[in-house]
Amino acid sequence: MKKAILIAFAFLALSAVAMMAADLTGTWTGTFTPDGDQPGGAYLVLRQEGTKVTGTAGPSVDEQHEISNGKVENGALTFEIVTENSTMKFELKQDGDEIRGDAVRQHDGETQRAHLSVTRKK
Q1: Domains and CATH numbers, the chain
Q2: pLDDT tens across 12-45, in order?
Q3: 35-43 contacts, C-beta under 8 A, 24 or more apart
Q4: Residue 81 CB coordination number (10 Å)
Q5: Contact indicator for 35, 114 with CB cutoff of 8 Å
Q6: Is residue 77 within 8 Å of residue 69, measured between CB atoms?
Q7: pTM for this one?
Q8: Distance CA 53, CA 70 (A)
């Protein structure tokens, strides 16, 4: 009997984790602020299946780039946006209907950093 209760509890705990992980699917809008520059727009469309995250991101609905290597692990969302001359790496944290964090890329021999702050579009 105790073993059955433990198995049921473990299943419920895993189900709760899976349900929380599905929270990223949706449209997110906000700001993308390069260090030393003014904030610009940010528009993300994310789809999550388990720990894998796919979708697009960019400054607006009209300018979107595919994200690659998207995943959620230990409460952190990471992904990359690859363009013809650089790769921007994102390290973000979700807190309910907010996602915040930083992006870094190497461009022309220089490290460029930015901050992303978006909320779920309702």
Answers
A1: 2-120 (2.40.128.120)
A2: 344 344 444 448 999 999 999 999 999 999 999 9
A3: 35/112, 35/113, 35/114, 35/115, 42/116, 42/117, 42/118
A4: 20
A5: yes
A6: no
A7: 0.80
A8: 5
Q: What is the 3-state secondary structure (H, E, C) of the chain?
A: CHHHHHHHHHHHHHHHHHHHHHHHCEEEEEEEEECCCCCEEEEEEEEEECCEEEEEEEEECCEEEEEEEEEEECCEEEEEEECCCCEEEEEEEEECCEEEEEEEEEECCEEEEEEEEEEECC
CB atoms within 10 A of CB 82: 14
DSSP lists the bridge partners of residue 93 as 76, 100
Residue keyed to tokens 């789809």? 47
